[in-house]
Design a protein that fits this description.
The structure is a single chain. Strand 6, helix 8 and strand 7 (193-196) form a beta-alpha-beta unit. It contains 12 helices and 8 strands. The protein is an alpha/beta fold. The protein has an 8-stranded parallel beta sheet, sandwiched between helices. It has helices at 21-26, 30-47, 66-74, 92-101, 111-114, 121-133, 154-162, 180-189, 200-203, 208-220, 236-250, 254-268; strands at 4-8, 50-55, 78-83, 106-109, 137-141, 170-173, 193-196, 225-226.
């Protein structure tokens, strides 16, 4: 069975999931990107046919070496990528335009790291509509936690954007975390909203939240879900095993599993 991973990171350094992920990823240079890919290449290729990189360094596409280094990765692995736009930069639309010209498939918002509050929602909607006009996928980190969880409400942000953006896929990363059922309800109404399964099923295993994720899979059906690992914070091996467990508990047949692990990814990227 082919597997495509919607959520891959290449941080500058990984100690454990409690490390300063934002600092690690926002400092990755183009050369580091290639270097880190080669560190993880064997594991990625062992499990995956395709992957989607999340690039947090908001200046990386302005580096002259970016496209060269990205092409080196693409020579050996089928990879797409999304960028994290700086919502407070007055050249953000030019940035997205440039990212698109370099082959970016989408943009991503991370409410905690970017400190996106309700007063910023209008700007995020404008940026998202611009990305929509370029045919770019829009992803939101929808995990729930940290001391910023009330001030920077990522699912509320995703909901606001989904009311204005309907012509491109919107992906809820991490299944909504603690609020998995609310993420499911949003996807139930908005047909362009998809749920990605990384990290949360590991974190909440043994709790009712894990059961909520399984319920969401059953309720929405496999065509609305994407496999993701959050690699390297969760290994590909552990992520695939967990996803297999989710599919088993949801009662998916082999055809439905293929849709979840690979076909939905291809459909989102129009392949």
């Amino acid at each position: 069975m082919k597997i495509a991973d919607f959520n891959i990171h290449l941080p500058a350094e990984v100690n454990d999931v409690t490390g300063n992920i934002a600092l690690q990823e926002s400092s990755v240079s183009p050369e580091m990107l290639t270097e880190r890919f080669h560190v993880y290449e064997n594991e990625l290729k062992k499990y995956l046919s395709s992957g989607h990189l999340m690039l947090f360094n908001q200046n990386i596409i302005n580096d002259l070496g970016f496209k060269t280094e990205l092409d080196k990765i693409k020579d050996s692995f089928d990879v797409k990528f999304s960028v994290v736009p700086n919502i407070r930069n007055d050249k953000v639309f030019e940035y997205i335009e440039k990212a698109k010209s370099f082959g970016a498939s989408g943009i991503k918002f991370h409410s905690y790291i970017q400190e996106i509050e309700e007063k910023d929602f209008d700007m995020v909607v404008k940026i998202s509509k611009f990305a929509e006009s370029k045919g770019m996928i829009i992803s939101f980190d929808t995990s729930y936690g940290t001391s910023k969880m009330f001030r920077c409400d990522n699912l509320k942000l995703a909901s606001a954007v989904s009311d204005q953006v309907s012509n491109v896929p919107i992906v809820l990363l991490h299944s909504g975390g603690l609020r998995a059922l609310k993420a499911m309800l949003l996807a139930d109404e908005k047909r362009n909203v998809f749920i990605e399964t990384s990290f949360s099923s590991h974190f909440y295993k043994g709790s009712r939240i894990f059961d909520d994720i399984v319920f969401s899979l059953k309720k929405l059906g496999t065509e609305r879900f994407l496999f993701g690992s959050d690699f390297p914070y969760i290994s590909e091996k552990d992520s695939v095993e967990m996803a297999e467990m989710l599919c088993e508990k949801a009662g998916f047949n082999e055809g439905e599993k293929e849709m979840f692990f690979y076909e939905n990814f291809q459909r989102l990227f129009n392949e």
